[in-house]
Write a structure and sequence with these properties.
The complex is a heterodimer of chains A (262) and B (604).
Chain A lengths: L6 E12 L2 E12 L4 H11 L19 E4 L2 E4 L14 E4 L6 E3 L2 E2 L2 H9 L19 H11 L6 H5 L1 H4 L9 H12 L9 H5 L12 H5 L6 H18 L1 H9 L12
Parallel strand pairs in A: 1-5
Antiparallel strand pairs in A: 1-2, 3-4, 3-5, 6-7
Helix pairs in contact in A: 3-6, 6-9
Chain B lengths: L3 E11 L3 H12 L4 E4 L16 E2 L11 H11 L6 H20 L14 E2 L9 E2 L5 H13 L5 E3 L2 E9 L2 E9 L5 E11 L20 H9 L3 E2 L4 E8 L13 H4 L3 E3 L13 H4 L6 H8 L14 H13 L9 E4 L10 H8 L1 H11 L8 E10 L2 E2 L13 E3 L16 H23 L7 H12 L11 H15 L6 H20 L10 H25 L22 E7 L5 E7 L5 H9 L2
Parallel strand pairs in B: 1-2, 1-9, 2-6, 9-16
Antiparallel strand pairs in B: 3-5, 4-5, 7-8, 8-9, 10-15, 10-17, 11-14, 12-13, 13-14, 17-18
The chains are: A alpha+beta (262), B alpha+beta (604).
Bound molecules: flavin-adenine dinucleotide (FAD), iron/sulfur cluster (2 copies) and FE2/S2 (inorganic) cluster (FES).
The site of one iron/sulfur cluster has 13 residues of chain A, from helix 8 and helix 9.
Amino acid sequence: MAETATTQMVTLRIWRGDANGGSFVDYQTPVSHGMVVLDAVHQVQATQAMDLAVRWNCKAGKCGSCSAEINGNPRLMCMTQIAHLPTDQPITIEPIQAFPSIKDLVTDVSWNYEVKKRIKPFQPREPDAADGTWRMEQADVDRVQEFRKCIECFLCQDVCHVLRDHHKHAEFIGPRFLVHVAALEMHPLDTADRLEDLKDRDGVGYCNITKCCTKVCPEHITITDNAIIPLKERVVDEYYDPLMMLWRMIFPKRQPLPMVKP
Amino acid sequence: MADIQTHEHDVLVIGAGGAGLRAAIEASAAGVSVGLVCKSLLGKAHTVMAEGGIAAALANVDERDNWKVHFADTMRGGQYVNNWRMAQLHAQEAPARVRELEAWGAVFDRTADGRILQRNFGGHRYPRLAHVGDRTGLEMIRTLQDHGVHKGITVYMETTVVRLLKDGDRIAGALAYTRERGRFLLFKAKAIVLATGGIGKAYKITSNSWEYTGDGHTLAYDAGAELQDMEFIQFHPTGMIWPLSVRGILVTEGVRGEGGVLLNNKGERFMFNDIPDNYKSQTAKDAEEGWRYCQGDKNANRPPELLTRDHVARCILREVRAGRGSPHGGVYLDIQWIKEKIPNAPEHIKKKLPSMYHQFKELGDIDITTEPMEVGPTTHYVMGGVKVDADSQMSRIPGLFACGECAVGINGANRLGGNSLSDLLVFGKRAGEYAGKYAKDAKPTTLRQEDVDAAAKWTLEPFDRQGGDEGPYIIQQDLQDMMQDLVGIVRKEDEMQRALEGLGKLKERAKKAKIVGNREYNPGWHTALDLHNLLTVSEAITRCALVRKESRGGHFREDFQDKDAAFGKVNLVTRKGPDGEMQVEQVPIPEMPAELKQIIEEMK
Ligand SMILES: Cc1cc2nc3c(=O)[nH]c(=O)nc-3n(C[C@H](O)[C@H](O)[C@H](O)COP(=O)(O)OP(=O)(O)OC[C@H]3O[C@@H](n4cnc5c(N)ncnc54)[C@H](O)[C@@H]3O)c2cc1C
Ligand code: SF4
Ligand code: SF4
Ligand code: FES
């Protein structure tokens, strides 16, 4: 029946430790054709390090649980084939760095959940039809659907220097949540206005368009070009455009200009 | 025990997939305090993996559709051992639940006139599945999550419930541990909703994740509730089979809905060779008609690839056993052939099935727009679950509710694709609503300290084990191998008897499973505890499968290959006997009201 898969020994160099510190530990394990990094980690867990902490769920790139840095690259462990890595040297696997360590490969990402809670929720316009439903063209939802592919793996948060190096967690929501705001702002039915929050509280200005986030997104969302830049433009139009400044002098309570939505 | 932190809620929802989130939202709308517990991070539950769509008779694509057709399809798919009342409520209420998701921000694919688009799926007479490409579950869970977090629900992430606690007959609370620190949380609650999903980790080849260890089933069973229909397991016909390490990962039925065909190694479309009588009038006569159906021709019947999952899975197995399989022991699923029919086929495939394209490309080094896939059956869904009242979703324990995959009823012997996501919404809402009501009216309960202490002691006991020389993972693997081999797609009396003996031995081994390390994020400890649940549901599956001496839906007996009318009149109910032994009872299915019978007659 099934072809026998050829096996080969590789060395996994896994970071073990917790908030108080830790170090890399080498594990030798056999790998067969098609194995992904998560499989190898599980094999180590089952046979050599039973208390090795690792998050995962779907093993198919759909849930965004298994984020880690593999040979220094932020990736999903379940979508990284070992055969695509050099196996003549140890494969290093460490937790994502932008968030505090809990144990081994598991980090405390709860900050992300707090950030999302703060963002104004979806608020639809009145239904279009008497039966309470809406009409939207596919072309009008394509862009939002791109943003809604996000699996909340937080790899983009991990690479963004504003969070990773400058620790601006209190002032900047990070690429993931800029994508989230973009998905809400560009939702054809949404009526809420998030531009002031975006400018002040969410810190969209911190992003200097390095595009590192876009490069690591496993869902291939064009985070910078399609989400962040249009949001920055909206903020500029709203706050630094002479017509809008006049409008806001007349309506200080931030009544939106008609048709500010696309 | 000193280190137990107590939290009090009117309603505690265990599980944050589609069912649990929907229940929590509804309970909280009733104005009661709601706690929501889940083993993973929020938004990572199994529901996130659902691909194909949500079944609801919106009639956006085919105006002939309505709840009656959906009801009849569901009953036919379930081979008439479904809870007909649940099948009725589900068909009636699913459209409103889907529209509600749109009002909460979900962005479904659209029809040309701007409404929610619906696609074909196995066993559904008309295009019925609202979808977003092949990531419908993500859209659904994210919509519920983003809506729910603004509703004042307290969420306890990465927290595992190990025991339900009662006050006399009534439910009164639950004990849980946090994964991060291994600390105990004691929940006091007037009502509890179980929404813990399935049991797929009892099998070796499965589309399910580590979470699917039958926790809710076991928590309910141990607390004195009843399980039903545990012999009915859905083996999805199309899982990946190669490379070995990805074996079991799902290939959505959407591939076949978009025109994908199944071929054996002779290039033959073998599904045309075996069409069950009760589906003959609804199945395409030839390849041409099947294709027209997938293209939306209302006068065409569906291709045989879209027959029910139990049937397609068995046909695949037969091809493989007869030596007509693919090199790695499956068959071919071919979607690239549609380039003969439509221009820009590769782009079309990528647009309609983006995650499938991605999944095969990254994990199998296969481009599905130019090559066929190799697929074979994978353990996917459990039809059986906690027995509940159809309208309120309450079990026989006052205050204990269940909904979603861990509850039983709507699916009968076989679930139709897409009927789970709609089930989660319809019965999640109902469970939340009735749990809220129940909690409002309920008198206060008290927990007995000795019950709490006993549960905590049981949970920590693996750390005290001396001497054992094997860890929990190997025991779990041996269980999965055994269930796969002996209580899998094709079942036989003697093999299942062997499985029962095997389960006895595995239970002994599980009691001694050795763990290392401390209580902080320790998967070895968690796995050791999960074994109790996996062994309990495996025993229920095996015992019921032994009693049902016929073949029906997801339960196929090589020694009783036909349906038996007498078994068509009963459900198998499992409960814990007074001596702690598992009992299985045949319980007659209540008589269906005349108007529902008539619907089924009309739709034959
Ligand atoms: C790959 C795949 C594709 C699918 N595609 C479709 C589809 O297209 N259409 C369709 O209708 N159905 C589909 N299904 C089936 C459907 O997705 C599931 O049946 C459904 O999502 C189950 O939802 P649920 O809310 O019952 O449970 P889940 O979404 O699995 O949630 C269970 C929750 O319970 C929690 N939990 C479990 N045990 C405990 C415990 N002890 N303590 C605390 N929390 C606990 C988990 O952490 C989780 O939050 C698919 C299934 C799979 C695997
Ligand atoms: S483009 Fe902006 S958000 Fe993305 S990584 Fe660079 S600075 Fe961060
Ligand atoms: S935007 Fe991409 S990288 Fe960022 S969390 Fe979402 S899926 Fe992950
Ligand atoms: S386990 Fe779900 S993305 Fe890797």
